[in-house]
Amino acid sequence: MRRLSRLALSRRWSVCSKRGRRQISGGSQPYALGNLATTKEYSAQIVRAGALGPLVTILKEGSAGAKEWAVHALGNLSALSEDLRDLIVKAGALQLLMPLLDQGSMAAKANVAGMLGNLAVDSEERSVLIAKAGTLKPLVALLTEGSGNAQDMAAYTLEKLAFYSEDLRVQIVKAGALKPLVALLREGSEDAKHWAAHVLAILASSADHAVQIVNAGVLPPLFSRLHDSKEEGAVVLLESLGKCEALRALRALRALRALRALRALRAQIVDAGALPPLVMLQCEGGGTAAMSRWRLIEH
Fold first, then answer.
1. Of 42-46, 54-58, 106-110, 232-236, which range is least confident?
2. Confidence grade of residue 9 (pLDDT, cut at 50, 70, 90)
3. What is the pLDDT at residue 288?
4. Any idea which of 63-72, 249-258, 265-274 has the lowest mean pLDDT?
5. What CA–CA distance (Å, rounded) separates 34 from 297?
6. What is the pTM of this model?
7. 129: exposed, middle or buried (C-beta count within 10 Å: 0-12, 13-18, 19+)?
8. Which residues, in sequence order, are CB contacts of 94 under 8 Å at separation 6+?
9. How far apart (Å, rounded) are the C-alpha atoms in residues 94 and 88?
10. What DSSP line would sit under 27-44, residue for residue?
11. CA 100: distance to chain centroid?
12. Is 136 in contact with 173 (CB distance < 8 Å)?
């Protein structure tokens, strides 16, 4: 694999640091490093060259624009390596991200939300630290007040935070996430709908939360999602709701489960190779039997 020049990386950061505190926010260094952090090997070289400390310093002392690029770089670094995720948290980045999540530009909020989701991947410990930093309410606010990208990132991060910890699931619900997540499932982008369905499925592992999710109006958008696509998140959410004893008697939920079973049966019919002979019979036959065959093909 082609290696990045260590000399070039160290020069990049020496130029930045020699300018002193006033100038540490200037230039395009964080942006360039973010674009270079495209593989685990490149990311490791960037960190070995000493970039992590200056990036965190920019989060603390840089201009608004430089802070956004630092988040861009740290977000890309955090996406590729478990070790780098630990290093970023240990370097003190979490508390420095909070002002951007609370008061930054919408682009900055979206990038911070995505970075927090990356940091939460595969780690209950980091997820708890992220929640303790005060991120839940700002993330929930982004579900309704954010741009399309910010909504996607917030839902993604809430899914990562909810995955390992029952306590964090309770906190997410208390932060008011259910209704905004249901709204995203109904009206959000494809990515937002995907992540919203997965978050709701995880939260629905609690019977109390499952009932609250249904009361928040999840069934109509869930029905639409199941009917219009093969989106995995909707299926997972349906399965989670179906495990709740208090909801099994709901006619709407039973109808959704029947719809899923019907879709599975249709897929089996197609996979078994039934369509060509059905089409041939339709072309050759007539009357009531032909109409029945045509209805099967239509569905």
1. 42-46
2. very low
3. 46
4. 265-274
5. 51
6. 0.74
7. middle
8. 119, 129, 130, 133
9. 8
10. SSHHHHHHHH--SHHHHH
11. 19
12. no
Q: Which residues, at least 6 apart from 250, have a Cβ–Cβ distance to it below 8 Å?
A: 214, 219
In whole angstroms, what is the distance from residue 88 CA to residue 244 CA? 39
Q: Which tokens hold the place of 132? A: 């303790």
What is the distance between the alpha carbons of residues 263 and 260, in angstroms, rounded to a whole number? 5
Q: Which residue has the tokens 């019907």?
A: 262
pLDDT above 70: residue 38: no
Contact predicate 231/197, CB 8 Å: yes
Q: How many CB atoms lie within 10 A of CB 242?
A: 17
Which one-letter DSSP state was computed for residue 242? H
Provide the residue type at 29 as one letter: Q
Task: Answer whether 109's CB lies under 8 Å from 146's CB.
Answer: yes
pLDDT of 156 > 80? The answer is yes
User: What does the block give as tokens for 280?
Assistant: 């041939």
User: Could you give the percent of the chain with pLDDT greater than 70?
Assistant: 67
Mean pLDDT of 179-192: 95
Phi, psi of 47 (to 5 degrees): -70, -40
Give the pLDDT score at 234: 81
Could you report how far apart the first and last alpha carbons of the chain are, in Å?
51
Residue 19 per-residue DSSP state? T
